[in-house]
């Protein structure tokens, strides 16, 4: 059974270094576990979507909740899915500091990125728009 998990967290360490480290680990560990997804980051905040088998995604989310690089880990959405939306990405990434305020306002009350104030559906719609605009980078 496939699931999709979306969470927000705050970085407990300097963001640029943490993002590089998280992406490196994800791109190494996710393929054998069958996990795909996208990491969005901005000003010490993360919004990440993970897809894969229920056991594998749950295990990874548990590691994230206990990872000292993350604080305030908050589950925004968890659902069973029939197919992956982010199958092309072992872990895609996008820097939301470069996001156009108008794009963000389509999904958020304010033009500042705050993943805790976005709903799960709005967050996924934002990520989908970033993918369609080729704003998500990474390796397949």
Automatic annotation (TrEMBL):
Molecular function as annotated in GO: blue light photoreceptor activity; FAD binding
PROSITE patterns recorded: BLUF
SMART domains: BLUF
Superkingdom of the source species: Bacteria
Domain BLUF positions: 2-92
InterPro entries: Acylphosphatase-like_dom_sf, BLUF_domain
Pfam family, one: BLUF
Name of this protein: Blue light sensor protein
């Amino acid at each position: 059974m496939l699931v999709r998990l979306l969470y927000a967290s705050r970085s407990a360490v300097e963001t640029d270094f943490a993002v590089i480290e998280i992406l490196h680990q994800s791109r190494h560990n996710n393929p054998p576990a069958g996990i795909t997804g996208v990491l969005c980051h901005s000003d010490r905040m993360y919004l990440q979507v993970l897809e894969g088998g229920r056991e594998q995604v749950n295990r990874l989310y548990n590691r994230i909740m206990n990872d000292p690089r993350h604080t305030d880990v908050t589950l925004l959405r968890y659902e069973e899915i029939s197919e992956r939306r982010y199958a092309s990405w072992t872990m895609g990434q996008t820097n939301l500091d470069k996001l156009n305020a108008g794009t963000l306002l389509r999904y958020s009350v304010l033009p500042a990125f705050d993943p805790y104030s976005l709903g799960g559906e709005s967050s996924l719609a934002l990520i989908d728009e970033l993918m369609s605009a080729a704003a998500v980078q990474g390796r397949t």
